[in-house]
Amino acid sequence: MARYFIIFSYDGAAYHGWQIQPNARTVQQELEGALALLLRENCPVVGAGRTDTGVNAAQMVAHADLPENIDTAQLIYKLNKVLPPDISVSAIRRVKDDAHARFDAVSRCYCYYVSTVKSPFARRYACRVPSDLNFEAMNNAARVLPEYTDFTSFSKLHTDVKTNNCKIKSAQWKRLDDNHWVFEIEADRFLRNMVRAIVGTLLLVGRGKLTVDDFRNVIEQKERCAAGDSAVAEALFLAEVKYPNDIYL
């Protein structure tokens, strides 16, 4: 057996997130089931991280131990035949035997999409927001995020992590066209619900409910109740997981 990274994407609308859990349909369950069907044996996969219920992934990575000389092109083809239409495998790459999809990742990038107009086509993948949002103020607030490491204020309560510290590399709003914007954020790790809580609080800044100093105060309070409501899940995408180049063979 040898270790491989499986690179895939999914629409999270029908799933209770990535990770297998009792009495719930998850992406990990679907991927492991497809591998077991094709390879005639159980093939546990370990993902680069969790995504919450309804959250999408433009690129997710998981590692699995597969037969050493497997035809990866054929396996990709067969996986895409048996997986549901909302999950798609794009690549399978051989990696070092001790490579770990979660612990070896150097950063993750998320994108959150918003629309300032009613759009019947974007409604599943963008959050409708007021047309008069102040995106300049929201960007000014977003720029302070890399100055901090403790993001307890943006974490789901009662999680099993050992620390709420993260290193945010960049965070900014970008205009896609007259009516659509995307919030892009990159960090070494993310807490559960973190990006949606950050977006929800930044939207308060954009509406004039919070100043940039207020946003700083939210972070410094280290209390989830100090931040805004979480933005809706369907507009959030895990966009990329980055690894050191020498992990691949």
- End-to-end separation: 15 Å
Helix content: 10-25%
Q: Which CATH architecture of the largest domain is right?
A: 2-Layer Sandwich
| Overall residue-averaged pLDDT value | 96
- By DSSP (H or I, 4+ residues per run), the number of helices equals 5
Number of strands: 9
Radius of gyration: 19 Å
**Helix and strand sequence:** EHEEHEEEHEEHHE
Can you tell me the CATH superfamily of the largest domain? Answer: Pseudouridine synthase I, catalytic domain, C-terminal subdomain
| Total individual domains | 2
CATH topology of the largest domain: Alpha-Beta Plaits
Structural class: alpha+beta
Principal-axes shape call: globular
The main sheet comes to: 9 strands, mixed
Q: TL;DR of this structure?
A:
The chain is of the alpha+beta class.
How would you describe this structure to a colleague?
With 249 residues, the protein is an alpha+beta fold. The protein has two domains: 2-103, Alpha-Beta Plaits; 107-240, Pseudouridine synthase I, catalytic domain, C-terminal subdomain (Alpha-Beta Plaits, 2-Layer Sandwich). It has five helices and nine strands, in the order E-H-E-E-H-E-E-E-H-E-E-H-H-E. The chain has helices at 27-39, 72-82, 135-142, 194-206, 212-221, and strands spanning 2-10, 46-47, 56-66, 87-94, 107-115, 127-128, 168-175, 180-187, 236-242. Strands 1, 2, 3, 4, 5, 6, 7, 8 and 9 form a nine-stranded mixed beta sheet that branches. Strand 7 and strand 8 form a beta hairpin. Helix 3 (135-142) packs across helix 4. The longest helix is centred in the first third of the chain and has 13 residues, at 27-39. The two termini are 15 Å apart. The model has no long low-confidence stretch (mean pLDDT 96).
